[in-house]
Write a sequence for this structure.
């Protein structure tokens, strides 16, 4: 719901500070907490500029400056996994958000309270399955003898079974589908909670004015959850390079590895498994820098458009 | 005018019926597709392990057995794990909810002079990470390793959850806060007595997220409390049971010995079902908070 | 109101629980100290490999504790790689008393976390006699000390291997039976036989189609695809490269003429529909499922990779009678090339073993425990179990098991509550020290024969063999460098050779499937070779050669003394 009063720009003077002393005191507590638990460990980023060995520790490992970063960016393999991660990240972001929002809205339109509860409970159950289980089922379903090929051949959409995992072009979409399958119900929870916040009086008024179902959704429900959508979009945009590890690791194979490997898989292969912690840290710093850049830009865009923003 | 209205009602009634029909079909299909992997896991959990190896199990067990559950439950340490997990779920969820909600409250106050800076401070924490080893050293230095508190304290404030609550709070009309301030109420009173009661849906949501997070966690138990079997969690005990040889080892010896320890899919499925059950039971308690509409009463205009 | 009270109760209860658990921190058994508990010493151990934890009140563990005066709480690797787990331990600076680092062993050594054992060994006769003088020399690290004791592959008296626990071309007995148990010794003969059988019998008895030949290339298991050229040329399992038996020079098996012929053969068979089209995308679980249905006529794999699950599944479905069990064949590229699939005798894994860490406060007590565990009584308790409960003794002193006992000991709950093998502590294999029995049940000849399915018995008989090993023939250890893969396993990207090795692996994962599926084999093969060269495989070979030479030198020096 839009705020009713205008936002008054507060001036930072002594009077204002005294008025807000409770808020300030509490904030100070949170800042200290955040500093200790979130910012202090960043000192570990020093590892990315060294040839870190656990025995030598942070202060005695050999300093190599940007050596690790150079190693990363001069490797075609790393550039390729950036591309893969970005692509899968964006595709996943869009598909999962759209699916969750559509599902939440449609579920909200279900009249039967009992039915609604049943559907919602079932919808988020896949979230609790491990990726090992879900990819196992998916692998089975998409294999040459699996149910998907069975149906496609039966309805004459295919001449003979197609092994979807053998072709790079399908891989990103399979990953997106897996994410939507597993997470839609869970992701929809936030949107459903937001929808309940919308004043029912608005709906009643609209109904009296003759607004049909679509009009109600378009002019009340969607605008009602818009702040939530924007905020989630912003936060998830920052996570686009964390498109994952498990799914791609479990579903990938030699034939599609040029499109299936993500930054995290690369780091596992070339970093940790080789005892090279510095590489992993360097890649992590890269991801953080990109994420923060995306957040800053996206937030600014949201601000310009007059929308809800993160900060 | 009456004719117009009746016409309108009949038209919308047809469109309505079509929509309801399509929506119902969609929901049914959605339920089937979403339920299938869970159902399949249930089927595998009740099916004999060796028989399950043949594959081909879809909708009903072929060789019924309870052995998988017995295998999972026989671990003595499971009880300790369950104990600790319940404790951390309850304590952790309540503390995290309170901590996140309070911070969300602060950051959602339009008058707060540092709200932008504080938000930015916390948002950035979502995207930066010092790495496993620096964090481990930090916890060790703070005395959090080998203790129950490592499950509670570091995870109390999460920028994501906090932001979700903040977004919700921003949607609450300022007039409520203003009238409370006129009555002389301070910030903490406004937070507890005015704002929080209106945040039930989002509190329930975040409580659910935190609870599930605690319920499923095992990595922190392994990393920080490995040596102390009194602080193990339920999921960690189950994880230990579900050893799967997934990473390349260069030692053929370890491969030879490890493969014999690989747990069949059916036992993994049983463990999954056992973990899911309590969460599914938790949800009805939270559902009544997902109430439609703000019960503000007469605070409009 | 009631709800509020219940909630308050729950919260208080949880807080009490939490506080109690938090307080238990003080009394927890940390890794840094070995406790005494009623006279029984307690140690901690961590093994960076997956494994099963036993219950705290395990019965045989209690017996062993009474026998030796000590017990060990073992923990295993979960959800991390060995390197990650070890790296975190090193960073934390606290270790369990015993550790086996597996792939992380070199990290532990570099970090100075391990206690040098050589000065102690003379005081512990069982440990000292576990290895020969030469073997102890081979275990010395660069600084001259010995830091770990390899646990496996150490036979007392003689090698009692009945199964070929290694890599081979496997084939179902029904295929051999149909052809009248022919002598198959070359790759071409092998595929020819499979083709002929498939044409004559395209389906199983119930109508499901056979899968003539499948390949597993899931992740690290792709050895099923990639290292056949090594064996086809008659070399033993050095794993990652060829070490020529005469010149002792390291050669690359990926680019030999045999490699080209092998992949060309696979390419032909793929086009004929003999090779399973799903080979390159299937995951391990799917592969095991296929084998478990008995439809796969043949494949290359390592015995331990499939037999555990598949044999049980075949038995359960009654597929043994259809002849679906697998036997190995002595295959090489051409007639006259001697196969060396099976190497008998013990090989020392110098790269990994049991160590004692600097956090252990009672090194002598720990070593005494290891020493005691090698005694005859302890080994029998570890490997066989309790007399009359887990095995019976006949009038000649031979151990044997009844079908009921066999069922009992494979039950997971029974294993956790009763059996205690201390599997990652040094253990004798081969003969038991009583001179009559084998050290492990699976090596006991009468046990082995009793548990063989009928179709395998028939098949072995037809070839005049009594064990799987005899199907492929025995070979002695080719030389002191063997197996060189224990060295290759320790190579990392810190060296150019290690980097080349990783690149080669990545590249082969991508290109070898393409080569097998290529419509134009020559073009595909050439493309693969030119891409392969960019990995700089020579750097890899150049790094392995000095290690081979070094191992030979140590052996010569030790023999001279």
């Amino acid at each position: 719901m839009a705020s009713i009063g205008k936002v008054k720009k507060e001036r930072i003077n002594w009077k204002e500070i005294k008025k807000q002393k409770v808020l300030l005191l509490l904030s100070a507590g949170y800042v200290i907490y955040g500093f200790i638990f979130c910012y202090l460990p960043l000192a570990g980023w020093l590892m990315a500029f060294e040839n870190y060995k656990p025995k030598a520790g942070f202060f005695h490992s050999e300093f190599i400056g940007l050596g690790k970063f150079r190693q990363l960016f001069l490797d075609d393999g790393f550039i390729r996994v950036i591309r893969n991660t970005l692509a899968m990240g964006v595709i996943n972001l869009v598909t999962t958000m759209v699916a969750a929002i559509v599902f939440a809205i449609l579920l909200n339109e279900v009249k039967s309270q009992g039915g609604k509860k049943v559907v919602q409970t079932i919808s988020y159950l896949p979230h609790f399955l491990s990726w090992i289980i879900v990819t196992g089922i998916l692998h089975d379903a998409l294999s040459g003898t699996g149910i998907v090929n069975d149906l496609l051949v039966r309805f004459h959409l295919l001449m003979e079974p197609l092994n979807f995992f053998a072709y790079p072009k399908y891989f990103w979409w399979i990953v997106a589908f897996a994410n939507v399958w597993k997470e839609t119900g869970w992701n929809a929870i936030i949107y459903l909670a937001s929808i309940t916040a919308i004043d029912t009086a608005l709906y009643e008024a609209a109904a009296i004015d003759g607004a049909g179902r679509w009009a109600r959704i378009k002019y009340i429900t969607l605008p009602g959850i818009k702040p939530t959508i924007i905020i989630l979009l912003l936060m998830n945009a920052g996570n686009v390079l964390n498109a994952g590890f498990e799914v791609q690791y479990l579903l990938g194979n030699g034939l599609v590895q040029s499109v299936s490997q993500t930054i995290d898989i690369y780091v596992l292969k070339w970093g940790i498994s080789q005892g090279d912690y510095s590489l992993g840290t360097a890649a992590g710093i890269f991801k953080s820098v990109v994420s923060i850049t995306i957040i800053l830009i996206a937030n600014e865009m949201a601000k310009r458009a007059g929308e809800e923003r993160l900060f | 005018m009456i004719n117009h209205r009746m016409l309108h009602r009949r038209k919308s009634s047809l469109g309505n019926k079509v929509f309801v029909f399509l929506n119902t079909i969609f929901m049914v299909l959605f339920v089937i597709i979403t339920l299938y992997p869970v159902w399949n896991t249930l089927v595998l959990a009740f099916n004999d392990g060796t028989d399950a190896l043949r594959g081909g199990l879809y909708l009903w067990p072929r060789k019924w057995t309870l052995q998988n559950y017995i295998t999972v439950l026989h671990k003595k340490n499971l009880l300790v794990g369950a104990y600790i997990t319940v404790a951390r779920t309850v304590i952790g969820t309540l503390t995290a909810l309170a901590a996140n909600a309070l911070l969300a409250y602060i950051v959602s106050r339009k008058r707060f002079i540092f709200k932008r800076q504080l938000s930015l401070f916390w948002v950035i924490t979502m995207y930066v990470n010092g790495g496993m080893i620096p964090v481990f050293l930090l916890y060790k230095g703070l005395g959090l390793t080998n203790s129950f508190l490592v499950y509670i304290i570091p995870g109390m404030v999460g920028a994501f959850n906090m932001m979700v609550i903040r977004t919700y709070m921003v949607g609450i009309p300022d007039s409520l806060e203003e009238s409370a301030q006129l009555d002389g109420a301070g910030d903490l009173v406004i937070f507890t007595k005015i704002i929080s009661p209106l945040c039930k849906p989002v509190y329930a949501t975040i409580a659910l997220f935190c609870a599930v997070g605690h319920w499923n966690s095992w990595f922190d138990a392994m990393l920080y409390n490995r040596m102390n079997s009194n602080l193990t969690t339920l999921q960690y005990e189950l994880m230990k049971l579900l050893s799967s040889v997934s990473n390349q080892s260069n030692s053929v010896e370890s491969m030879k010995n490890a493969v014999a320890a690989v747990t069949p899919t059916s036992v993994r499925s049983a463990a999954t079902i056992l973990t899911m059950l309590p969460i599914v039971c938790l949800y009805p308690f939270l559902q009544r908070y997902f109430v439609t509409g703000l019960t503000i009463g007469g605070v409009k205009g | 109101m009631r709800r509020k009270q219940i909630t308050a109760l729950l919260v208080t209860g949880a807080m009490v629980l939490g506080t109690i658990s938090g307080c238990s921190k003080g009394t927890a058994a940390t890794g840094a100290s070995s406790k005494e508990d009623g006279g029984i010493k307690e140690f901690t151990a961590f093994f960076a490999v997956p494994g099963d934890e036993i219950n705290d009140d395990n019965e045989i563990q209690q017996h062993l504790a009474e026998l030796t005066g000590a017990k060990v709480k073992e923990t295993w690797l979960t959800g991390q790689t060995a390197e990650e787990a070890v790296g975190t331990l090193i960073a934390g600076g606290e270790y369990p008393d015993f550790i086996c680092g597996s792939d992380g062993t070199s990290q532990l050594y570099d970090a100075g976390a391990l206690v040098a054992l050589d000065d102690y060994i003379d005081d512990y006769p069982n440990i000292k006699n576990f290895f020969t003088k030469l073997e102890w020399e081979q275990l010395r690290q660069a600084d001259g000390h010995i830091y770990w004791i390899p646990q496996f592959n150490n036979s007392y008296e003689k090698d009692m291997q009945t199964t070929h626990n290694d890599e081979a071309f496997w084939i179902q007995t029904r295929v051999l039976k149909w052809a009248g148990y022919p002598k198959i010794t070359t790759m071409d003969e092998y595929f020819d036989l499979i083709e002929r059988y498939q044409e004559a019998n395209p389906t199983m008895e119930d109508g499901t189609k056979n899968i003539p030949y499948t390949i597993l290339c899931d992740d690290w298991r792709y050895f099923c695809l990639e290292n056949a050229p090594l064996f086809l040329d008659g070399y033993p399992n050095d794993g990652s490269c060829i070490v020529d038996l005469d010149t002792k020079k390291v050669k690359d098996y990926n680019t030999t003429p045999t490699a080209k012929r092998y992949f060309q053969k696979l390419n032909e068979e793929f086009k004929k529909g003999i090779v399973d089209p799903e080979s390159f995308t299937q995951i391990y679980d799917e592969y095991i499922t296929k084998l478990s249905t008995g439809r796969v006529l043949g494949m290359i794999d390592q015995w331990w990779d499939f037999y555990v699950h598949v044999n049980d599944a075949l038995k359960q479905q009654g597929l043994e009678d259809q002849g679906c069990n697998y036997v190995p064949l002595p295959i090489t590229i051409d007639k006259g090339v001697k196969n060396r699939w099976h190497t008998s005798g013990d090989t020392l894994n110098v790269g990994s073993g049991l160590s004692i860490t600097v956090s252990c406060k009672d090194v002598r007590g720990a070593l005494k425990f290891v020493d005691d565990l090698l005694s005859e009584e302890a080994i029998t308790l570890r490997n066989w179990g309790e007399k009359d409960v887990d095995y019976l003794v006949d009038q000649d002193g031979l151990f044997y098991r009844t079908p009921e006992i066999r069922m009992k000991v494979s039950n997971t709950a029974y294993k956790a509550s009763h059996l205690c093998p201390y599997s990652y502590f040094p253990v004798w294999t081969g003969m038991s020290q009583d001179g009559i029995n084998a050290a492990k049940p699976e090596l006991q000849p009468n046990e082995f024969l009793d548990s063989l399915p009928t179709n395998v018995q028939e098949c072995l008989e037809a070839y005049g063999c009594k064990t799987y090993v005899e199907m492929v023939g025995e070979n002695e250890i080719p030389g002191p460098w063997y197996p060189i893969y224990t060295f290759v396993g320790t190579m990392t990207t810190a060296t150019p050779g290690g980097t080349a090795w990783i690149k080669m692996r990545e590249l082969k994962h991508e290109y070898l499937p393409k080569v097998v599926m290529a419509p134009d084999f020559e073009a595909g093969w050439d493309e693969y070779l030119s891409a392969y060269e960019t990995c700089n495989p020579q750097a890899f070979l150049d790094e392995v050669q000095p290690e081979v030479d070094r191992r030979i030198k140590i052996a010569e020096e030790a023999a001279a003394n």
Observations:
- Chain B touches chain A through 99 residues (CB under 8 Å).
- Confidence is low (pLDDT under 50) at residues 292-301 of chain B.
- The CA atoms of residues 44 and 55 of chain B lie 10 Å apart.
- Chain B has one domain: 75-301.
